[in-house]
């Protein structure tokens, strides 16, 4: 079934304790798409400036990503982010954020995107997400991501959004911030009362927790020995999950379990390289092989 992602495409500058890279392909929609296309074709809606290189559009299209919804703004400059990771690779400092064309992004969905059945609203302005939802024509599943900045500054719009989506992805601290609860499970339960039928709480190297009104699933992270840099891991996780769900055409509890496992595995590859470079090197067979190892690790 058709899959749509609306989010950002960026050029990142990333510093780790051992290396610095400039103009790394980044952005929530890009990381999502690279991951999801292992399982399903993807329609991407985002905005870039005239500094966007055509070769990157061609690369994404070659992987099954429909780029007809990519707005290239004449005279504009693509969203840019610069970050530096600490020695533990968990903590990072944002050194610079240039919103550029993303600052006034008002997505206009192509006709095919309006009919998408599975939709992911990547981390972004809640009001923008609401405008996207208004353009959808009967989506089966709409899942959104958010962050602490919008919880603080656009809470009312975010609460309105929660009433219109099926699932929410947040990290542990964001779930607690949104609800005022001190425990992740209590926070997830409270989010369910605000509208979504399920919540996925991302816990970094501690995995993820799925909570619905009837189920709780806990997933460990896949242990990665070759950690290079973790930018985009959460969006990659979302892409693997949503891509698998779209490939199956359903979002029942058992399928969501399998989808979260796939998202976990693709994210474990993502952190082994800068930007999308590792995902460009692997195949669906590599993902399935690592998933088999994952199953063995968690079986008891």
Can you describe what's shown?
This protein has 300 residues and is α/β, with parallel strands linked by helices. It is built from 11 helices and 13 strands. Strands 5-4-1-8-9-10-11-12-13 form a 9-stranded mixed sheet, sandwiched between helices. Helix 1 (28-36) crosses helix 9 (233-248). The longest helix has 18 residues, at 253-270. The chain is globular, with a radius of gyration of 18 Å.
Helix-strand blueprint:
Elements (H helix, E strand, L loop, with lengths): L2 E4 L3 E6 L4 E7 L1 H9 L5 E8 L4 H9 L2 E9 L5 E7 L6 E7 L12 H4 L3 E4 L4 H10 L5 E5 L2 H6 L1 H8 L4 E5 H8 L4 H9 L5 E5 L5 E5 L3 E4 L13 H16 L4 H18 L13 H15 L2
Parallel strand pairs: 1-4, 1-8, 2-6, 4-5, 8-9, 9-10, 10-11
Antiparallel strand pairs: 2-3, 6-7, 11-12, 12-13
Number of strands: 13
Class by SSE composition: alpha/beta
**Main sheet attributes: strand count, strand direction, barrel closure:** 9 strands, mixed
Q: Treating each run of at least 4 consecutive H or I residues as one helix, how many helices?
A: 11
Task: Classify the beta-strand content into a percent band.
Answer: 25-35%
Oligomer state of the chains in this structure? single chain
Shape: globular
Distance between the termini: 34 Å
Helix content: 25-40%
Let me know the average pLDDT: 95
- Low-confidence stretches are none
Q: Please trace the helix and strand order, writing H or E for each element.
A: EEEHEHEEEHEHEHHEHHEEEHHH
Strand order of the biggest β-sheet = 5-4-1-8-9-10-11-12-13
Q: What is the gyration radius calculated from CA atoms?
A: 18 Å
């Amino acid at each position: 079934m058709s899959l749509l992602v609306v989010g950002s495409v960026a050029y990142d500058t990333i510093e780790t304790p051992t290396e610095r890279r400039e103009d790394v392909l980044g952005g929530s929609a890009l990381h999502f798409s690279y991951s999801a296309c292992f399982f399903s074709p993807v329609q991407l809606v985002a905005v870039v400036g005239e500094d966007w290189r055509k070769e990157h559009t061609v690369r994404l299209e070659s992987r099954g990503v429909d780029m007809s919804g990519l707005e290239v703004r004449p005279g504009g400059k693509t969203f840019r982010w610069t970050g530096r990771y600490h020695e533990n690779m968990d903590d990072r400092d944002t050194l610079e954020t240039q919103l550029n064309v993303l600052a006034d992004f008002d997505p206009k969905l192509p006709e095919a995107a309006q009919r998408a059945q599975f939709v992911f609203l990547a981390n972004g302005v809640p009001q923008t997400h609401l405008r996207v939802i208004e353009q959808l024509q009967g989506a089966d599943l709409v899942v959104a991501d958010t962050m602490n900045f919008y919880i603080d500054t656009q809470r009312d719009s975010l609460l309105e959004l929660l009433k219109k989506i099926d699932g929410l992805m947040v990290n542990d601290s964001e779930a607690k911030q949104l609800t005022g609860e001190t425990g992740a499970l209590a926070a997830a339960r409270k989010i369910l009362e605000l509208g979504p039928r399920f919540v996925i709480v991302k816990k970094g190297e501690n995995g993820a927790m799925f909570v619905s009104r009837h189920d709780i699933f806990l997933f460990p992270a896949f242990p990665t020995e070759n950690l290079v840099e973790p930018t985009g891991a959460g969006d990659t996780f979302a892409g693997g999950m949503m891509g698998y769900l779209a490939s199956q055409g359903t979002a029942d509890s058992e399928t969501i379990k399998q989808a979260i496992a796939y998202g976990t595995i693709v994210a474990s590859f993502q952190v082994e390289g800068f930007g999308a470079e590792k995902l460009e090197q692997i195949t669906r067979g590599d993902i399935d092989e690592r998933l088999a190892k994952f199953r063995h690790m968690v079986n008891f």
